[in-house]
Amino acid sequence: MNLVYRNSAVLDRMPKASTTKEHEVTRRSFEVAFSFVYLRALRGSRLSPCVYNPSMTLSEQIQKDITTAMKARDEQRLSCLRMVKTALKNREIEKMAPLDDKEAQQVLSTLVKQRKDSVEQFSKGGRQEMADKEAAEIKLIETYMPKAAGEQDIVAGVKAVIAEMGTPTMKDMGTVMKNVMARFSAAGMRVEGKQVSDVVKRELTPK
After folding, report:
1. Among 41, 80, 96, 98, whose CB has the most other CB atoms within 10 angstroms?
2. 50 in a domain, yes or no?
3. DSSP 8-class letter at 195
4. What's the DSSP call for residue 126?
């Protein structure tokens, strides 16, 4: 624990005391306070969900959680968060500018899709351990994403859009899809295009 204190930027920036004795007392006060905060973070880091600060960007939140994972020695979580950080940084380099929230979420969506594909491939190949690892990463990444719409939410959304449009047919499927996706986006919910497509086809097919 002392190593953490010596490396802490908080302690390095603490006010200078006028005497050695005062300096030691001040330092110990900082150490006690820092220890309390550190232990609370360590105790909750593995099981508690992330607590988001609305003033933070996604990249800042990821970096904060990387620090927490490092202190907790949670290697699996740390590895996944570093991978997410790298993906976000690479996208920023491609764009040559910081990402907005929508662009950052698109990066996360891509990472989740890649891992879902990997889970399917590993499962088919009998490599359950690797499939479980990818599935665990999906769960972690999704904690940084909007709530996913369930099957009932999607059906209700599609039916609402169809009702608003009047009597759309299969040739209007693209427009229905666009309106449904926009509806969920405005509601701050995450939905997969394939799920929406399947429901739209089903609802537009003459009974």
Report:
1. 80
2. no
3. H
4. T
Q: List Cβ neighbours of 71 (8 Å cut-off, separation of 6 or more).
A: 4, 38, 41, 42, 45
Q: Is residue 177 part of a domain?
A: yes
Contacts of 104 (CB under 8 A, 6+ apart): 57, 58, 59, 88, 91
pLDDT at 192: 84
Q: Encode pLDDT of 106-120 as tens digits.
A: 999 999 999 999 999
What residues in the chain have per-residue pLDDT under 50?
1-49, 51-52
Domain interval for residue 180? 151-204
Phi, psi angle pair for 114, to nearest 5°: -60, -40
pLDDT at position 148 is 85
pTM tops 0.85: no
Nearest CA-CA partner of 17 in 26, 6, 30: 26
Rounded CA-CA distance 165/149 in Å is: 22
And the tokens for 99?
């990402």
Q: How far apart are CA 171 and CA 122, in angstroms?
A: 37
Total number of domains constituting the chain: 2
Please check whether residue 102 lies inside any domain of the structure. Answer: no
Instruction: Look up residue 24 and give its amino acid.
Output: E
Residue 55 in domain = no
Q: Match 């790298």 to its residue by tokens.
A: 86
**DSSP one-letter code for 15:** P
Q: Which of 206, 146, 143 is nearest to 170 (CA)?
A: 206
CATH classification of the domain holding 177: 1.10.10
Q: Tell me, what's the pLDDT at 54?
A: 52
pLDDT of the residue at 190: 85
